Amino acid sequence: MPEKVKADALGPGYYTLSPEILSDYVGDYLILSRSAKGDNSFMQTDTWRKIPAVKNHHVIEIDTEASTYSDPTTLEYLLNIFKEGFLQ
Predict the structure, then answer these.
(1) What's this model's pTM, rounded to 2 decimal places?
(2) Residue 85: CB partners within 8 Å, gap ≥ 6?
(3) Which residues contact 36 (CB under 8 A, 6 or more apart)?
(4) Residue 2 contacts by C-beta under 8 Å, 6 or more apart in sequence?
(5) Burial of 30 (0-12, 13-18, 19+ CB in 10 A)
(6) 10, 11, 17, 31, 80 from 85: Cα distances, Å
(7) d(C-alpha 56, C-alpha 50), whole Å
């Protein structure tokens, strides 16, 4: 776990991070819930490309529209995605 996460993000609540400091909070892998319909232009920036997990191809993408995070079908979908992402 990155030190910034230990220091800033283990308590309750939500945090907003600017793209410029995101790499301080990303570990060896990055789980990204992404919508094909959304604005994904951040993935074309130098800031994104410089994140070590991105450089090392350790980004596991989840289709936002395909998951609700609570039903058995989604849990099976996520298990397969994580299995592939972490074992490749």
Answers:
(1) 0.79
(2) 29, 58, 60
(3) 63, 65
(4) 24, 25, 26, 27
(5) buried
(6) 25, 28, 24, 9, 8
(7) 10
Residue-wise pLDDT tens digits, 9-67: 888 888 788 888 989 999 999 999 888 888 989 999 999 999 999 999 999 998 888 77
Q: Indicate the residue type of 64.
A: T
Coil, strand, or helix at residue 57?
A: coil
The angle at the Cα of 84, spanning 25 to 59, to the nearest 5 degrees, equals 25
Tokens representing 38 are 């959304």
Tokens of 82: 């994580």
